[in-house]
Amino acid sequence: MASVMQKRATLDDLYRTPEKAELIGGRIVVYMATGRKPGRIGGRIYRSLDDHAVSVKVGEAFPDNVGYAIAILPSGRESFCPDASFHRGPFPKNPMRFITGSPHFAAEVRSESDYTPAAELEMAEKRADYFQAGTEVVWDVDTVAERIHVYRASDPDHPATYSRGDTAEAEPAVPGWRVPVDWIFS
After folding, report:
1. Which string of DSSP letters, residue by residue, matches 21-57?
2. I need a labelling partner for 31 at 20 to 30 A (CA). Which of 24, 80, 122, 181 fits?
3. Which of 94, 79, 96, 88 is nearest to 31 (CA)?
4. pLDDT per residue over 120-138, tens digit each?
């Protein structure tokens, strides 16, 4: 029985992918569209981040579907596409291309399908990849319980958790940024 080798996908292949996707293990991994609530929450995070970046004149905030190209990790990952992110630079010479390197801050907003044991494992693996690539802070935004779990590269196994009534932050990745949890989930 003969086996057929599939060609390893590249960043150039990822650029030509019309859907939200990431490059992992030489494969283009496509992500399904999200629902209303996760989309609004991701948008609010981006909005607040962008307002902060503009006011302090440091870094840039990005909404969903902005790609970050990274050196291949042991997991095989070569890119990220967070739901919202913040990057202090450097930025690509060609502003139409992916950002080279990991975001300093990434928000992953859970969709309806992100509450299974397999999804929990995938999210933990992705956080580990973020930290290995140099990301300082990752938010795991629980849209059902309406909580934000803040993971830091300095202590990745012990997240801070913010609920309604709290003010969330992303220190040290986004110094001085604070956002009311009630506003994010409203």
Report:
1. EEEETTEEEE-PPP-HHHHHHHHHHHHHHHHHHHHHT
2. 181
3. 79
4. 999 999 999 999 999 999 9
Tell me the torsion sign for CA atoms 73, 129, 99, 173: negative
Could you report the per-residue pLDDT of 109-119, keeping only the tens digit for each? 999 999 999 99
Burial readout 69-90 (b: 16 or more C-beta within 10 A, e: otherwise)? bbeebeeebbbbbbbbbbbbee
Q: Is residue 5 one of the residues assigned to a domain? A: no
What is the CATH number for 149?
A: 3.90.1570.10
Q: What is the pLDDT of residue 104?
A: 98
Please give the residue range of the domain that contains residue 147. Answer: 11-185
Do residues 87 and 99 touch, judged by C-beta distance below 8 A? yes
Q: What pTM did the predictor assign?
A: 0.93
141 in Cβ contact with 180 (< 8 Å): no
Q: Two tokens at 68? A: 């970050």
Residue 106 lies in a domain: yes
| Number of domains, the chain | 1
Helix (H, G, I), strand (E, B) or coil at 113: coil
